[in-house]
């Protein structure tokens, strides 16, 4: 993984994904450059283009077709710049390779519990902020209320806020915009079907880089 890939990986906190789950796609995006920076010669121009491209992708975040934009892996071409209406900016079409993550049903993933409430858990899984695990989908656990609510199982396993949990993805839905949610995939999760699903040990969480 190159330095740009590592940088964006850290920004998205994706250390707990298996790399085989990622895709490599070729994308084209327009990048605006201040006219005085538009000299195409030299490594500095390419670095400037890459910096602006990364900045734009972080703002764009994700798309329905390609999933979350994780890292720019290669700069393939820089098209002819265009300056419209005497603008102070020059726009270049950039073709580049991009590593993306497209969540899909049936995968086994890891997440960190953000909220515990009677009806279930809300987890964060890498760039995915909304993973809902219904209490109905963890039948061996029961809700224990109080100031710091938890879900406890008959086998003495406990899930609380900040717990790391291995889960099965039941379904995924793309939301363009709804309330405060914008350009996000939301997941439904389950702990049914395997005794390997559920909270993982602190040592395993540390090894996977899940502890905050």
UniProtKB/TrEMBL annotation:
Biological process annotations from GO: DNA-templated transcription initiation
Main localisation: nucleus
Cellular compartments annotated: Nucleus
Keyword annotations from UniProtKB, A to Z: DNA-directed RNA polymerase, Nucleus, Transcription
GO CC annotations, alphabetized: DNA-directed RNA polymerase complex; nucleus
GO molecular function: single-stranded DNA binding; single-stranded RNA binding
InterPro entries xref list: NA-bd_OB-fold (IPR012340), RNA_pol_Rpb7-like_N_sf (IPR036898), Rpb7-like (IPR045113)
Function: DNA-dependent RNA polymerase which catalyzes the transcription of DNA into RNA using the four ribonucleoside triphosphates as substrates.
Name listed for the protein in its UniProt record: DNA-directed RNA polymerase subunit
Lineage summary: Eukaryota, Viridiplantae, Streptophyta, Embryophyta, Tracheophyta
Gene: LOC111442060
